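**Backbone geometry record:**
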Amino acid sequence: MNAKQLFQKYHKRMVKVSIVKATLIGLLAALAALFITAAVCWFVGFKGIWLSVVLFVVVLAATAVTVYLVKYRPTTRSIARRVDELGLEERLITMTELEGDDSYIATRQRQDAMEALGKVSADFIKIAVSAALVIGVAVAAVCAQATTTVYALYNAGVIKSGVELVNPEHVEESKSFKVEYVAGKNGSLVGETKQT
């Protein structure tokens, strides 16, 4: 039995672990992009909240897929290393290194590794995510949600843009109209008949 067949039961578990980690990193990058886009668009007065949403989705997908493929995609060696961490004392790493060797020692080592592997369940491989990554995603989510809310309120016309708040002269003068009142046949007017 070769190493790839031996590791099939661990491969699915490692793929799940890798997808969770890559998705969290992608989410962190996408939330940062959402925060920056919403803040800049609100400040300069660009109305188009769709841009923030599209950018969020694109950054999430691109980052998660790239991180998975480059850093977390399970290989035979990474699976062997991870399973060895469960107490197999580098038996599987050694087995993968000696895969093409048919000597007596290599054959005995493979048999020993397979016996030890039979005692290790794939469920022992836990999803371990660093606390810093989880905290980073939480902070980014709060910041992105806050700026997106401000940007949505600006798009709805509830609040002014950042430029309008910082530089009131930049705000367009409110339009004024000249009105003249005329009394009907039997009517009369009291007060100014021309107003602005």
